[in-house]
TrEMBL record:
Species: Weissella oryzae (strain DSM 25784 / JCM 18191 / LMG 30913 / SG25)
Gene Ontology MF terms: ATP binding; hydroxyethylthiazole kinase activity; magnesium ion binding
Name of the gene encoding the protein in the UniProt record: thiM
Keyword Disulfide bond listed: no
Reaction(s) catalysed by this chain's protein: 5-(2-hydroxyethyl)-4-methylthiazole + ATP = 4-methyl-5-(2-phosphooxyethyl)-thiazole + ADP + H(+)
Tree of life domain: Bacteria
Protein name: Hydroxyethylthiazole kinase
Binding residues annotated for substrate, in chain numbering: 39, 186
Length: 246
């Protein structure tokens, strides 16, 4: 049985420490594939929520000083309960964000990191051009992705026109894509949440990352055909394709 079917059967709760820009899109992706999204910013309820959650997605998109302790607390709870932690390191190349992620990785085990080429290069102490939330250079450098996986001990998903998924030994490439992904802010966050949802029901986090990334790419190709290159309609069509996936 594919992981998508397990998601539909188990309807896992996916807990999100989300950014405030794209959280509706993130919640929609989780729900459309059969999961149950929940967003929180309350430290007081983290212990209760991690008990019922099957995965934790930390997205640092709209960071502030109060959030690092929340990330650490949630991450430690997830680690203790053996539930997967997915990190979306939005714009980690910027100094403040880099400091926060460095501090976070000292405190918690992150199982999967999903970012664009500029963000992933940061984990390998390399520089790939980027500006804020965007990568400017979509280079396919397998060595960087493998190094990022080895340095962090996490599975790495580098998104772009070609997605790369690495676990420190192997790299898988996914080439199916639509350029309508790029103009839509939040598609990276949606992919991170989809990976979180798949890892919530699969003990094999590498397989979860690969299947989720493949599904997202293939759904984007179908959606682009349906909307005839209209970018605003693309997100709705993408969600419809994710809803219909099996
Ligand atoms: N130039 C591109 N052409 C086609 N697909 C892309 C392109 N850039 C990114 N994607 C796809 O868009 C989604 C978001 O990835 P990306 O833009 O790299 O993340 P982020 O939004 O975090 O910067 C992924 O599914 C990725 O594969
Ligand atoms: C615009 C913006 N600002 C802070 S978070 C965010 C959304 C980032 O989304 P993505 O990384 O998926 O493009
Ligand atoms: Mg991003």
């Amino acid at each position: 049985m594919g992981i998508i079917n397990q998601v539909r059967e188990k309807q896992p709760l996916v807990l999100n420490l989300a950014n405030t820009v794209t959280q509706q899109r993130v919640a929609d992706v989780i729900s459309y594939v059969g999961g149950s999204p929940l967003m929180t910013t309350a430290s007081n309820e983290l212990a209760e929520l991690m008990q019922i959650a099957s995965a934790l997605v930390i997205n640092i998109g709209t960071l502030n000083d109060e959030l690092l302790p929340l990330y650490i607390e949630a991450g430690k709870l997830a680690n203790q309960l053996n539930k997967p932690v997915i990190l979306d390191p939005v714009a980690v190349t910027l100094p403040y964000r880099g400091e926060i992620v460095t501090a976070l990785l000292k405190e918690i085990k992150v199982n999967i990191i999903r970012g664009n080429a500029a963000e992933i290069a940061w984990f390998a102490n390399q520089t790939v051009a980027g500006k804020g939330i965007d990568a400017l250079d979509n280079q396919i450098n397998e060595a960087i992705v493998l190094d990022a996986a080895q340095k962090t001990g996490a599975i790495i998903v580098q998104s772009g026109p070609t997605d790369l998924i690495a676990d420190g030994q192997q790299v898988i490439k996914i080439t199916a894509h639509s350029d309508l992904f790029k103009i839509n802010v939040g598609t990276g966050d949606m992919l991170s949440a989809l990976i979180g949802t798949f890892s919530a029901v699969s003990a094999d986090y590498f397989a979860a990352a690969v299947e989720a990334t493949e599904l997202f790419a293939n759904s984007g190709v179908k959606a682009a055909q349906i909307v005839e290159q209209k970018p605003a309609n693309f997100i709705n069509a993408l969600l419809d394709c994710l809803y219909e996936a099996n």
